Write a sequence for this structure.
């Protein structure tokens, strides 16, 4: 019987896809399943598992066999440190051999892998470590200064660490079940004061195949690449685990993003399937040099935020097709996809696509009623106890395609990163000269939205103070999570309960833009 990977059309997806058919793609079952086995161990040892484009130039590649052996050593090392199955093991490393062996090695050992974004500062790291209580944290060499205050045992991912691992056996017997915890993944920002860890079990690798098949269109034989950070859902689940589960060679990006370096990697690796954030496409467009490269893309997808029309048109002119959107949240998974490669479902400009098989998605009005075509409401997904809100607005057209209509809460999506207004405000308020702070997202041609902070201070609001606040947020929260625009005010609008009213700030900004 054909596997789901043998079908490419939208009609076949609706006809053949089911939970049981997804399980046919794997060796394990609900009683015995391990992500490391499914993603690494069962594939040809000499096949390249990952290619890494280095921001400073050059590239690295590692086979499934190399990652298998080194992750086995890492699993045995964790056991030797008396780190038991179920305990958390964190890693804060850019894509590298160290990253992949730590990710898969922790799950081999039955531990819970916790990837951390490498641009986190001490405040952001401390919050997440305090939340998940890891027994061990592997840090990139450039993050050595964070070790002292990490709150757990640490090691530095350098040559000495690899030399130490050589003392351990490569073989490791995996004994996890499908329902055993495999990974904690932190959203890049939340509406809570503390970041929320989304907890994934080993059987999550089966569920995520829906996004692989119908969101990114991943199929055996693809030369796949995802330049998003491997600490976030896109780069981790869709860019790493999903292709590896299918035995596909994937490519990642390490270091500060440069659109020229990405385009060079697309050519160098002869990538046929690219999935990137909308901002990656905008930055490639704005570089103005795409004509210098030869692309071999057959499937193109994006996620994280809506793509502006100019960028979508540039992508079609450059790659021969509109990028296919897929949409979801870390909490509920992928809900909508454009089925890349499906000839019977052409991507529509601006569309989020159609529901993924098995997902009941609708647009509802405030009364809980289904909206008519082109009527804007909230995107909702059916769960066991009823409709679950995504906090995103949208509409459906007459053909059933879904479209995004903006955020319904105070989360800010900038260049694909989801950031918390509350978390940024909390960090800014730690500055000795900040009396009050409020943060909102404002439109930006490149990033979609950028963070704007309104500050009340007795200090003069000059350029020097603005730069100081920006650096303060970057160093204490995250390199990406800071206000690119800072304005000073005498007072902030408040709700009757005394909370800052961000809606009034957003409305004022819109009025100033003439909207």
């Amino acid at each position: 019987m054909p596997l789901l990977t043998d079908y490419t059309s939208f009609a076949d997806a609706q006809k053949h896809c089911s939970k049981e058919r997804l399980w046919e793609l794997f060796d394990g079952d609900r009683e015995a399943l391990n992500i490391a086995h499914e993603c690494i161990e069962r594939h040809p040892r000499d096949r390249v598992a990952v290619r890494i484009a280095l921001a400073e130039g050059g590239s690295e590649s590692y086979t499934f066999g190399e990652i298998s052996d080194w992750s086995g050593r890492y699993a045995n090392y964790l056991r030797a440190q008396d780190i038991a199955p179920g305990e958390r093991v964190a890693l804060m490393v850019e894509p590298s051999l160290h990253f992949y062996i730590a990710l898969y090695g922790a799950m081999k050992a039955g531990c819970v892998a916790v990837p951390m974004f490498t641009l986190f500062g001490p405040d952001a790291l401390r919050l997440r470590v305090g939340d998940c209580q890891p027994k061990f944290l592997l840090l990139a060499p450039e993050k050595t200064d964070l070790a002292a205050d990490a709150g757990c045992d640490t090691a530095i991912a350098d040559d000495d660490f690899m030399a130490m691992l050589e003392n351990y056996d490569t073989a490791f017997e995996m004994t996890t079940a499908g329902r055993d915890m495999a990974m904690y993944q932190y959203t890049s920002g939340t509406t809570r004061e503390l970041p929320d860890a989304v907890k994934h079990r080993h059987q999550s690798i089966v569920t995520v195949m829906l996004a692989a098949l119908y969101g990114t269109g991943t199929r055996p034989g693809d030369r796949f690449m995802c330049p998003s950070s491997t600490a976030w859902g896109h780069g981790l689940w869709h860019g790493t685990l999903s292709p590896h589960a299918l035995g596909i060679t994937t490519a990642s990006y390490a270091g500060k993003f440069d659109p020229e370096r990405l385009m060079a990697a697309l050519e160098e690796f002869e990538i046929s399937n690219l999935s990137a954030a909308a901002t990656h496409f905008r930055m490639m467009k704005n570089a103005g040099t795409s004509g210098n490269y030869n692309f071999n893309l057959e499937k193109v997808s994006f996620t994280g935020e809506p793509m502006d029309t100019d960028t979508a048109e540039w992508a079609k002119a450059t790659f021969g097709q509109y990028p296919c959107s897929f949409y979801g949240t870390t909490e509920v998974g992928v809900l909508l996809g454009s089925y890349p490669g499906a000839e019977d479902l052409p991507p529509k400009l601006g569309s989020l696509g159609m529901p993924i098989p098995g997902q009941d998605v609708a647009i509802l009005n405030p009364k809980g009623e289904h909206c008519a075509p082109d009527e804007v409401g909230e995107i909702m997904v059916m769960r066991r106890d009823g409709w679950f809100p995504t906090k995103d607005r949208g509409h459906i057209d007459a053909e059933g395609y879904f479209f995004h209509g903006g955020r319904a809460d105070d989360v800010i999506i900038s260049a694909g990163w989801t950031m918390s207004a509350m978390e940024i405000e909390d960090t800014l308020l730690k500055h000795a000269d900040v009396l009050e702070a409020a943060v909102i997202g404002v439109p930006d041609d490149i990033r979609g939205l950028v963070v704007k902070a309104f500050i009340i201070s007795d200090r003069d609001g000059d350029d020097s103070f603005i730069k100081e606040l920006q650096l303060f947020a970057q160093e204490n929260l995250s390199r990406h999570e800071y206000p690119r625009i800072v304005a000073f005010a005498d007072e902030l609008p408040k709700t009757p309960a005394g909370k800052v009213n961000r809606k009034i700030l957003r409305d004022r900004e819109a009025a100033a833009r003439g909207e």
In short: The CA atoms of residues 69 and 220 lie 23 Å apart. The two ends are 56 Å apart (CA to CA). DSSP finds 16 helices and 24 strands in the chain. The longest strand covers residues 386-396.
